[in-house]
Amino acid sequence: MHALDRKLLRDFKRLWVQGLAIALVLAAGIAVILMSVGMSRALDDTRAAYYDTNRFAHVFASARRAPLSILPDLRAIEGVAQIEAQVRAYAVLDIPGRAKPATGLLISRPEGEAVLNIPLLRSGHWPETNSEVVVNRPFFDANGFALGDELSVNLNGRKRSLTISGTALSPEFVYTIGPGALMPQNETFGILWLTAEVMDASYGMSGAFNTLGLALLPRTSVAPVKAQVKAVLDPYGATTPQDRSGQQSNAFLDAEITQLRVLAYVLPPVFLLITVFLVSMVMSRIVQLERSEIGLMKAIGYTNLEIALHYLMLAGLIAALGVGIGWLAGSWLALAMARLYAQYFDFPFLVFGVPLSVYAWSAGIGVATTSLGALRAAFAAARLAPAVAMAPPAPPRFQTNLGDRAMAALHLSQPSRMILRALLRWPLRAGMTLLGMALAVAVLVASNFFPDAMEEIIDSAFYQSNRQDMLLLFDPSAPVSAVEDVRRLPGVMQVEPQQYYSARLINGPYEKLVPISSVSASADLARVVDGTGQAIAPDPSGVLLSDRLASALHVTVGDSITVSFESGLRETHQVPVTGVVTQFFGLGAYMDETALNRMFRQSPRLTNVNLTLADPGAAEEFESQIKDFPRLVATINMTENRQSFLDTLSQNILVVTTIYGILGTIITVGVAYNATRVQLSERARELASLRILGFSKGEVAYILAGEVLLLALIAQPVGWALGAGVASLMTSGFSSDLYAIPLVLEPGTFARASLIVLGAATVSVALVARRLNNLDLIAVMKTRE
Question: How far is CA 568 from its chain centroid?
């Protein structure tokens, strides 16, 4: 083995604790890269394979009732490859042995093979008779069904018992979320495939369809196709066709993949930057301590390049250790994330496995990071002339300055003055140590603000805006008298009808398809609230928009927008924007109920009913009687919806905050331990001299630890500011049309971050300070003349 190689291994063995501390910081960055990039690619690859295999459509359209005779016109549109027309409807389901109803999305199954959005049969067989049904697998499992079990379906007012003949998954429903729900609730919402004959007969759709999927040829522009499809379907009550970005399940998948990518861009650079600083600090000190050895090596013939490479290779060993640990941790985190996603996304398979390319370039990033940190020290070693290297380094020059006079005026003790002088005379080192501590605080602040943000979302969405116990969705043809029928049901305490109309909001080139909700002046259950929790009644003269919708349309209060209704009378109106309100879920638009009815020249209508129950115990009896309610198409138990959301959220937040708490601790330990350890190696002779001069062990330990702990204290407000900035970047990156995460930074968030960092710094410093007790004063005081 080469002599320099033996020295390299000895040095690494001697510095293993410092090397491990640095490697753990690097490993944290590598692990986050593997988890976020690996999982985003896994989701992307799985989605692409699933969509391709099962022919997921590119364009989705719907109409009230369009004749099958227009399908040739749709197929003739340039760029259209395939078409699938279906009949779909929501219905209330009655599951035997359970009081509460469920909601189902009913889909007609063609007699032949499906050509688009092909469901994948997981068990059993497709319906062979009109009394059979196939249900989606998550709904089947959540309710403990077995093949051959029966359930009752309210088919357009007629209750019919169907036998479960099989289970399936569909690329349309990777994220299966029911109407009014915030996340999947597989027990109460399912997808049901019935024969086309049953659907046609039940909903009067013989020779017609109400939903359409279109697959396009490669390199076909989607926008012109959507426009032509809209033109063909418009006479039949069409809504604006959507591409994949507007398809609900795919939109949730897109949002999740985007979040993972944002995570990969925001957090790893923090860990890599700290690694560069730590490697630079440690390697610079090693070169200083090994000046004479460097001189000897040059004197016996080693070249500058060999010596520079020697120190770069030492940094490379740290990189190898960090990359190895990061690979293990990142693979484990990616697997844990995959299991978590399996609970929410209904893929028939998961292309799991972090691509080798991600491992390769993460290793390259790790080596480049440590090499960058060691570069300055390696060049310094290479530039040292043998004669200069063999001599002790020139002592630093000291002189009395303003800082010394200020310390004297404050009557500080000598140990305290020593601490402050060290900070003032080596500002770069002090600044880098402070920055490392501040970044640790920033990571903790940026990860721990989520619980507070979620608390604000929950309070706004569940306790300020939507305060109902139950939400009932009705067919548009339901009479207003249904409100009184609901009011007479057992346990009902408060009832409020509401209307929803699909509409395109247009401002020049900007356009959004959203539901417009009616709000009455006396609304108490489904309200519009501002950022302070105060209820807002829409001005009768215009429309009230959510802040993200107003931003997407590039409008402010006072601007006028075009509202093209796609349900109701399908009219177009110019409406002023009379208000903008903060909203976290979806893109909301609201109009005064009376003004909306006047605009449509109609008497009061309803599409849904909000209600509260006298007590939680009344829910079971109420739900048992609502199953057979005429014109009812869906029920949502908002109380259970809230609880499910809270339970899932609290579990996920606990996992996330624990992981980032560990990462923040790793950063702190890496910075504090290495900074203190370098100080000890630099100042061992000075500290030993103080012991000989009569300073106690406590005073000497105070000098050693005080500098790092003082920097840790000063780093707190800097870290708070950096953390707020990182959190702001994350909220911007995570927000989408589906939801927005508010930037909520409570004092407790900063306090928790500071407590973890200061605690970890104190423990790290204490570990190094213990070495002072074992100092051999005679050996330390020896010096080579």
Answer: 37
Rounded Cα distance, 564 and 504, in Å: 5
Phi, psi dihedral angles at 420 (to 5 degrees) = -70, -40
Residue 97, token pair as written in the block:
């042995």
> d(Cα 729, Cα 725) in Å, to the nearest integer?
6
Let me know: does 663 contact 450? Beta carbons within 8 Å: no
Residue 192: exposure state from Cβ atoms within 10 A (0-12, 13-18, ≥19): buried
Longest dimension (CA), the chain: 104
What residues have CB less than 8 Å from 304, skipping those under 6 apart? 298, 382, 383
Cα(352)–Cα(336) distance, integer angstroms: 11
> Shortest CA distance to 589 belongs to which of 568, 571, 563, 566?
563
Could you give the CA distance from residue 430 to residue 304 in angstroms, rounded to a whole number? 30
**Count of beta carbons in the 10 Å neighbourhood of residue 639:** 16
Residue range 548-604, pLDDT digits in tens: 899 989 999 999 999 998 876 788 899 999 999 888 887 889 999 888 888 888 888
φ, ψ dihedrals at 519, nearest 5° = -135, 125
Structure tokens at 84: 């699938």
Q: Tokens representing 650?
A: 């609290």
Sign of CA dihedral 378, 379, 385, 391: negative
Structural contact between residues 557 and 580, judged by C-beta atoms closer than 8 angstroms: yes
| Residues 473, 37: Cα–Cα separation, whole Å | 40
* Structure token pair of residue 334: 């990616």
**How much is the pTM?**
0.80
Phi, psi for 762 (deg, rounded to 5): -65, -45
Q: Using CA atoms, how far apart are residues 23 and 366, in angstroms rounded to an integer?
A: 10
Phi/psi of residue 350, each to 5°? -130, 120
Phi, psi angles (nearest 5°) of residue 498: -150, 155
* Residue closest to 148 by CA, chosen among 123, 173, 169: 123
Q: CB-hemisphere CA count at 13 Å for 148? A: 0
Does residue 81 contact residue 215 with C-beta atoms inside 8 Å?
Answer: yes
Residues 326, 327, 328, 330, Cα dihedral to 10° = 80
Gap between the Cα atoms of 216 and 238, Å rounded: 20
- Burial code (b: 16+ CB inside 10 Å, e: under 16) for 645-658 equals beeebeeebeeebe
Nearest to 66, CA basis, from 186, 233, 299, 227: 233
The tokens describing 477, both together, are 């043809």
Contact criterion met (CB below 8 Å) for 59 and 190: no
């005081």: which residue's tokens?
Answer: 781
Could you report how far apart the first and last alpha carbons of the chain are, in Å?
33
Instruction: State the DSSP code for 245.
Output: G
Q: Which residue has the tokens 């076909």?
A: 220
Phi-psi region at 353: left, alpha or beta (left = phi > 0; alpha = psi -120 to 50): left
How would residue 408 be classed by pLDDT, with cut points 50, 70 and 90?
A: low
pLDDT at 663: 75
Q: Which residues pair with 93 in a beta bridge?
A: 102, 153
User: Tens digit of pLDDT for each residue in 659-714?
Assistant: 777 877 787 777 777 777 777 776 666 777 777 777 777 777 777 778 888 888 99
d(CA 393, CA 593): 84
104: closest CA among 202, 238, 18? 202
Q: Where are the domains of the chain?
A: 1-57+249-391, 88-204, 402-467+640-785, 468-639
Helix runs in 459-541, H state only: 482-487
CA torsion sign for 196, 201, 202, 205 is: positive
What does the pLDDT read at residue 785? 44
Cβ contact 776:290 at 8 Å: no
b/e string for 713-736 if b means 16 or more Cβ within 10 A?
Answer: ebbbebbbebbbebbeebbebbbb
How far is 233 from 310, CA to CA, in rounded Å? Answer: 73
The token pair that represents 236 in the structure block: 């039949």
